[in-house]
Amino acid sequence: MSIGTTIKSIQDIMRKDVGVDGDAQRIGQLVWMLFLKIYDDRESEWELLDDGFKSVLPKHLRWRNWAADPEGMTGDELKDFIDNTLFPKLQNLSPRGDDPRGYMIRSVFEDAYNYMKSGTLIRQVINKIQAGVDFNQAQQRHLFGDMYEQILRDLQSAGNAGEFYTPRPVTEFMVRMVDPRLGEKVMDPACGTGGFLVNAVEHIRRQDVKTARDEKRLQASIYGYEKKPLPHLLATTNLILHGIDVPLNVRHDNTLSRPLVSWGPKERVEVVVTNPPFGGMEEDGIENSFPAAFRTRETADLFMVLIMQLLKPGGRAAVVLPDGFLFGEGIKSRIKEKLLTECNLHTVVRLPNGVFNPYTGIKTNLLFFRKGTPTREVWFYEHQYPEGYKNYSRTRPMRIEEFDAEQAWWGSEDDGFAARVQNEFAWKVGVEELQARNWNLDCKNPHVGEQVSHDPDELLRQYDAMQGEIADLRDQLKAVLAEALERQA
Fold first, then answer.
1. Residue 358: is the preceding peptide bond cis (ω within 30°)?
2. Which terminus in the chain has less CB density within 10 A, N or C?
3. Could you give the CA distance from residue 296 to residue 309 in angstroms, rounded to a whole number?
4. Residue 399 dihedral angles phi and psi, to the nearest 5°
5. How many angstroms separate the CA atoms of 20 and 121, rounded?
């Protein structure tokens, strides 16, 4: 049985439970159970590798001792154990000696809940997980991303806007081009379920990790923040699964809530890779953490200002942003001016429609920049659909091989990308022209004439994207008018 099928069958069982109301609660219930199962799988590995290994969990709280036996606790006994023993102990777990895993487990259970009321149905779910999920098998580890995508699709249908699964080809390409190396701090300030961080870990391991000491340095160099408890739990689980034994540097926190100036030199990093939430608004007051010139409630705009603050001089970033950031005026123009005058925005990869379906139809872009030297020219590359594609779908997803053309064209930053040439998909624009355009980065491909599509599906996608952008602008206008009225009052 595939992982996706296992997840679906588990959710079908949960629908029978009167305590679980809607997809969001079903997913939260599933994720803490998966965490304990996966953590137990990892403990089995640690025991094989280290004869002196001792679990930070008391014996009776380890998955293998209360959940793994399909004929074990059930009914009221199981329900009572989870509610009155398991959760209170995990939420107050302390480290054992110098092993910080206790802090890590406590942090991921601080906002976890057992919603299910039926101990009999809980046992059925546990048995499905025990039989269908074994991440000690390398093949199933690679399928964990598929499970994430299924969970996030369900989150989207549950109305949790802003939860985006970044396709693995996009995360892998961005990490490959920004090229984090051993000894560099890598951060995702809006890490979601940890996809960028996992790709960075895999990239650095392939390039640089040769010894146990190298691995220890790598584990200490990965940083992430996620403000929502469920994605944070998923990110922690994902990193443990990929060999980051104690991801203490991946924290449940909102990086936008800290005053911008409080991010001092010691917290700055060499590499940022991220897909910050876009199309949403931050809660009232968050914008006051930023200088007056950049105060807005639009999440992606605030993250761009934060990323520039987080980078060390010479640090580099790869960021996913919507088209609205490229052509936006007002505060967006001021942010772009700061970006192009304080950083070298050397490349913008323009992605086609459908990359982030079904979460959003808005067109997106990948921005690559280095802090410390101003931009002289920006290269644009228009990513193409594979031959025969008009859009991406679940059965025809994006593939990493599609980025071979960009990678072959990319060249080296060391010589200022001297090998790059303009072609039918690539062009460059000087910073003087961009300044004259009031920092509008929505630069059309000059090698392609104005094209009008008459495909009904394409026109509908364009209409949906425009409606999203119009709603975004309307929300921003409402926020500005409300602030103006408050000042008059």
1. yes
2. C
3. 17
4. -120, 150
5. 11
